[in-house]
Amino acid sequence: MSLAAMDLQIDPNSPQALALVAFAAGCLSTLTLSRIHRRYFRRFPSSEWVTPDVLKKRRWIKGVVTSVGDADNFRLYHTPGFGWRWPLKFRLVPSKNRDLKDQTLHIRMAGVDAPEAAHFGKPAQEYSAEALAWLKEQIDGKTVYCQLVSRDQYMRMVAIPMLPPRLLPSFLTPRYGRCLSLEMLRDGWATTYEQAGAVYGRWGKEAFLSIEQEAKTARRGQWIKGVSAESPAEYKRRHSQSSRSVETDLEKASEIPPRPRGGWLSRLWRS
Fold first, then answer.
1. Which residues cross the membrane (predicted)?
2. Residue 166 is among the residues annotated as catalytic for this protein
3. Is the pLDDT of residue 70 over 70?
4. Which residue in 44, 146, 154, 270 is deepest, having the highest Cβ count within 10 Å?
């Protein structure tokens, strides 16, 4: 008997046919729910959980900023899906450091460079404290949307951060929100990041440079005394060159042969 003949003999109301339909519907539902969960409900505890396909698609995520460690990066607790806010709040963002350990994404703001704080034995750059205070006031403890772009050498997620619009629903943030990097440039607390691999989102590099120039002309933020202030890029180059000079001096010092010890009798005996 041919397969076509067998198909014609199957009763659509038979238990076998109903079982096949139920099985197919179950598989389809499982696949659909799995894709929905991966896209809208899967939480990224840290940058190690962000897969290459997420970066390739430049996915948007939202979360709550739990700390601001420097003037151009912060920690984000990813809050996918719903249940994080009233009236449907049944999920909580941890508030204690021990509960936040390995549970946040380290976000590096794309497109900008802020004054450097003191670290690794280097002194703080002028206006670094003011830039940090500005960023904390803007985002600390608040919901921020981020478009994930790449992962840098320090395992931070380079992202375009967006602040929710004031009069529109927050889910419209990716389209109608305010770009945090541009806001920081506009208030004069950052410069445009122009190193290799820099990303500027849909605005482009020219928009970043134009807003930076606008802040300089208006003498906002770090430009209050004029535009002669050392930029973060210049600060990094200066300290990088200083570090290399110290390393070179140490290498030369290690190459100097040790002086012989002992008195004139010891030297006479060695000769």
1. 16-34
2. no
3. yes
4. 146
Residue 201 has pLDDT above 50, yes or no: yes
Task: Read off the DSSP letter of residue 147.
Answer: E
**What is the pLDDT at residue 246?**
46
Looking up tokens 């006479």 gives 268
Catalytic residue, chosen from 108, 183, 186, 212, is 108
Amino acid, res. 212: E
| Residue 266, C-beta contacts closer than 8 angstroms, at least 6 positions apart | 260
The residue annotated as part of the active site, out of 75, 116, 183, 212, is: 116
Q: Is 116 a catalytic residue?
A: yes
The residue from 156, 178, 194, 230 that is catalytic is 156
CB-based contacts of 201: which residues, under 8 Å, 6+ apart? 110, 111, 147, 160, 179
Which DSSP helix (H) or strand (E) runs through 109?
Answer: strand 105-109
Entry pTM = 0.78
Encoding tokens for residue 165? 């619009």
What distance in Å separates the CA atoms of residue 26 and residue 57, rounded to the nearest whole number?
Answer: 29
Q: Is 38 a catalytic residue?
A: no
Query: In this structure, what is the dihedral angle of CA atoms 26, 30, 31, 37, given to the nearest 10 degrees?
Result: 160
CATH number of 47-233: 2.40.50.90
